[in-house]
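Notes to self after the call with IL:
- keep both proteins in one doc
- input above output, always
- annotate only the second one for now

Protein 1:
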Amino acid sequence: MRHQGSILIVDDDPQIREVVRFAIGREGFRVSEAGNGRDAIEAFGRERPDLVILDILMPEMDGTDVCREIRRNSTVPIIFLSSKDDEVDRILGLELGGDDYVTKPFSPRELVARVRAVLRRRVPSATPVKLDDGARRIVHGRLSLDLDRYEATWDGREIVLTVTEFGLLRTLVGFPGKVYTRDELMDGGYAGDTVVSGRTIDSHVRRLRQKFAAAGGEPIETVHGLGYKVGPCV
């Protein structure tokens, strides 16, 4: 079977790890594991996985702290696992930099589908607005998206984005000025495989705005009652 990528599974319950390992492994992914937060940080640095499946409630260091630590230097996709089903917890996880959220008990097949959907977001599909020196890059005013490196810059200053954030921004920049509904942004950011609430999309957009505001930019505009668009970026 062709190697599909590497996944780090982080959960203090060995039975959960076994279920996930079996489901992920039989799909061709290489799997590594950690049973607590501190071991997860060590394993992440050692393995450099393509995606992390991360439990929230763990000893030593909980999943939210692990996510914060990973996000210091990496935009690797993170899917949270949690026994909680409160929307506040979901939004908190996503605002910390998570790309998706699965509630226990979960279907292994659903989890595999979520993994594939998140990883697919790394492959842009729309035509770039402008090609810069042959590179697959969208340039719109002071905003630039490198589609091959999955990097965003504002006035030449790099803005570190998660996979989902990049997917949402890439969708908006594909047609500057077009107003995108939350459903359309859901399709762009989640590859049509995951249904999330409008509040989740709002949460991602809020994080995008915070990151660009820190660099002096405001690329995303709200169209009240409809959705979001990218402005002139001048």
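Protein 2 (the one to annotate):
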Amino acid sequence: MPGSREHQNNSAPPIYVLQLRQDDPKKCTAAKLVKFRLARPLYKTRQVPQGAIVLNPFAPIYLLNKDRRQIVRGLVAIDCSWEKAQEVFETQFPGRSRKLPTLLAANPVNYAKAGKLTSLEAVAASLYITGFAAEAAQLLSIFKWGPHFRTLNAQPLDAYSNAQDETELRKTISEFF
């Protein structure tokens, strides 16, 4: 049947959060995603789905729109403190590690700082880049400042989502940052 595989690739990807509980739970965007059942919690590294995209700010490969085929298997945010990120990401996670291109944070703690995204912002950016804009907007809507993330990064997100390969993406990043 012609539409069945396409339908699978148009379905919103399942979102997972590996909860390391290193942040204040009242300010933790990943915990709120889980609380509102917008993400499934994971508690152990081995629970990360094998084929999923794992967001890793230290990965050697950038997330591109062509990762859409992979992201429908799952998108995983590792919820950890920025202070412990280097140590946390030395762990080898199952799945395919990808880093995001440079974006500005809209969260009140790191407002307008390049690359200092919350888990929510990172997941939303990944969804935008891979063509799931409506799902990204839904996630961002759970915080007052969330929709401002899209406004603040509208041009880079649109350009990143159109990049065909790493070379083009790196050039695009340098044009904005």
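Annotation: The beta strands are 15-19, 40-42, 53-55, 75-79, 96-98. The longest helix spans residues 119-129.
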